[in-house]
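#data-curation
PF: Archiving a pair of folding outputs for the training set. Convention for this channel: one message per protein, sequence first, structure tokens after, nothing in between. First:
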Amino acid sequence: MTKTLVTLSIEEFGFALATIGAEDIAAGLLKPMYGELSEQHWELILRAASHSLLSKGLIARMEDMEVEIEPEFLKMLMHFAQSRSMLRAYSDSHGQEKVLTIHQGTDNNDPYLYHLAVDHHVHLFTWTEPKEWEEELFQFYTGQQGAFIDQTTQFTITEKQWNVLTDENNHTSLETFLSDWEIPSESQELLSRWHESFEISGRQVDNLSIIRYTSDQAEVPLPDQTLLMLRTDQGFWSISSDNANSENASIEITQHSAASLRKQLRAWIDRFATPVSNP
């Protein structure tokens, strides 16, 4: 069965959300791009968006103040606006900002909604299911050319050490820290390799997170869990926190083979997904 795929500009998306009563979400999308505009300017922007949606067939009818949205598109919009749980992938690598969110419905039998935003301007929507996500996330983070090693390697540092290494105001050399920290020699080599990749990337990391709203939350909450990703020509790394809420919190840094990255992505998918019927 062919899936419905909807492609929107940010203006079309904002107008559609406002039409179903999700004005706050619409404002959160549009105001960072346009800033404070007069009511007349907003009217011109949204009027153009409404006519564009009408020409695409996503608005079935528009008369006076009444807007009738195409049923399948309306279902997607309501799902997006009402979802209280999402898997969120973020990448700002290689000159393009991408945000992929997979939204769980309010009922366990609801399908999942796929939403990809590219540089804020382009928004793609379709229905999706968990078996598709491993490949989707793998390509999202690695692109067509992933730099992988054959054998996975990893090391662990304390949260305090991690904070020191990633402090933008810290200009002390890594060698100085290594001489002070009690880190095994084999881990020191891996840490040096990771730190070099981190600096080459401009300290830019991507991330994967699980976000769940509580019943009374309106603002987007902090993620339940976050996995950091670092992709360079020298390798692909992930950074995860163990016992994040305890005094003994540690940071595990892994340089991946392709197989180990896929395994880690599957583990995150399993933390988020519940069985659903096809849309």
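PF: Second:
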Amino acid sequence: MASECEVSRRAFVAGVSAFVFGAWTDPPAVTKRVEKLYKIAGCRQPNDLQFVPDGLWVLDQVDPNKAFEVRPEDGSIIQELQTESIHGSGITYGNGALWISSTKMADPKMPPRTLKVDPKSGKTLKSWVTPGSGLYGKITPTSTPSGAHGLKWVDGKYWMAVPASGKLFLMEPETGEIIRSIPAPGVRTHGLAWDNGFLWCVESDGRVIYKLDPSNGRALERIQLTRGDPEPHGLDIHDGVLWYCDAASGWICRLV
């Protein structure tokens, strides 16, 4: 039987081949302007975003990861949580808890996990092995499996981008079971946002944000950022406006 890493490697190669050799057609482009809003004090590598009624959660990728709840209007901090996540790339909120994708693990021999986290203490309440984890991109002798990137809570479930699998998974949160999956757009999929029945997905390598049909993964629109813009990593939507963050530069941005 093939190992999880071998399966993920095959999925990655197949996905790249389809993307490069004609199975992928870019959808129509939507023009947006990047508005750089602020950097958050103490949050050095913001890697994902999640709006909640009383603020905005931002996950810092610096290990071990902290999660910051901030005021969206100015980035001032409401609360700061120390979590057990390592190199985390996704954060969402539902069922009274934060859900965080620990993209790596403190012990590199252990498979990456998805964490259910207490939003007051930062303590891990439960965790599950992330499906589709594995090696992707530039693989070296020291490479370790990579887990999920973006997460987004939708109607009691959550969507999860796992680059090594070439898929976006819809997950049953309390069991960690896969409900279904759709093809991912491109290679380094990252942040997700739910927009009135449609799913936006970041593809960081191409600096593109795709609007997808969540029933089949078909790309309907795209927003193309430039090399001069902060690189898109995390994503969410607020009052119909897409927000994103860049772990490299630290900027919180929105598209207007």
